[in-house]
Amino acid sequence: MGLGPTPILPSPSSPFGSTIYDTSRVHVMVLGWASFALIGVLYYLVPKMRGKEEIHSKRLASIHFWITNITFPLAVVVTASAGFVVDSLESSGVSDAAVFGTPQVMTILAVFIVLFIVGLLAQLTFVYNIYKTLGS
Fold first, then answer.
1. Residue 21 contacts by C-beta under 8 Å, 6 or more apart in sequence?
2. d(Cα 116, Cα 133) in Å, to the nearest integer?
């Protein structure tokens, strides 16, 4: 593993046999960094633009922060495990069409959907908090 763009370069010693996992890891890290940076900037700047000292609700901001910090890494783990499960099923001879009907993949999909809904509710909490700060 390297820094910057080097993780997307082919690695002869890659334990996974391809660089798709390295590439996705880089994208996930950038997504997490960029989204949390943007959220932090908005939590800081929006009240200042409205001439206020702080956000509408620190409690909602805390709820948003912790739910996002829990669901995002869990979603990354679930997504990575889905990739490994699908790869192992396909390498054992299961056809592409049959992979998505297997109990393993359906369980992972159900967990991912729950994480998505919880994460979406956290982001809606963020939007509501920013909206109330702008409106009040």
1. 14, 80, 83
2. 26
Domain with 131, as residue range(s), is 6-135
Hey, what amino acid is at 18?
S
Q: Does 1 fall in a domain?
A: no
Q: Which of 99, 117, 105 is nearest to 79 (CA)?
A: 105
105 Cβ contact partners less than 8 Å away, ≥ 6 residues apart: 82, 85, 86, 89, 99
Task: Supply the DSSP symbol for 93.
Answer: T
* Global pTM value: 0.73
Give how many domains the chain has, as a whole number. 1
> Which parts of 1-136 are beta strand (E)?
none
Bin 19: left if φ > 0, else alpha if -120 < ψ < 50, else beta. alpha
Identify the band that residue 63 occupies on the pLDDT scale cut at 50, 70 and 90: very high
The residue assigned the tokens 């046999």 is: 17
